[in-house]
């Protein structure tokens, strides 16, 4: 199969600059068109992508969207430097404590992705990352964390504040639901 540089980039969710870098580094096969400067990427259709990599970036609030774009760029640069073939880039805005992030769920269940690259472990999950790693290992997949940092005092304090915030939100939500339930019961009682 032959692709234009832009088509190939779109197919794998990467930038055209990354494709050009891969061409110069010899990581993709290409040919030069006869009477122009155009390049065609050559790829076998039957090729099984064993090193299929996905990038996952996350920020907690929409106020940090600029940081999200910078995070994606850093991850793309890292993968390019390591020679990884990025087939998917997923970026999401949401709490690390939230266990219902649809984009992450879709990524974790996509078996075509053999490795997920994240900048920091807390970008993927605040807690339970080890469980996620073990489950992915059973499928022959893995997670690579670019910046493994030790749990220093500031990280522990941020995690502690996140836990308290999460529990408070759940508690107030439960109270609100309890009041709604009581109101429904009261209205049903009046109807009788």
Topology:
Blueprint: E1 2-4, H1 5-12, H2 16-25, E2 29-32, E3 39-42, E4 52-59, H3 65-82, E5 85-93, H4 102-109, E6 115-118, H5 121-124, H6 129-138, E7 142-145, H7 153-191
Parallel strand pairs: 4-5, 4-6, 6-7
Antiparallel strand pairs: 1-3, 2-3
Helix pairs in contact: 1-2
List keywords for this structure.
single chain; 192 residues; alpha/beta; Rossmann fold; four-stranded parallel sheet; 7 helices; 7 strands; 51% helix; elongated
Taking Cα atoms only, what radius of gyration do you get, to the nearest Å?
Answer: 22 Å
Shape: elongated
The low-confidence parts are none
The count of β-strands is 7
CATH topology of the largest domain: Rossmann fold
Number of domains: 3
Give the biggest sheet.
4 strands, parallel
CATH architecture of the largest domain: 3-Layer(aba) Sandwich
For CATH, the homologous superfamily of the largest domain is named as Resolvase, N-terminal catalytic domain
The residue fraction in helices comes out at: 40-55%
Helices, by number, come to 7
Distance between the termini: 71 Å
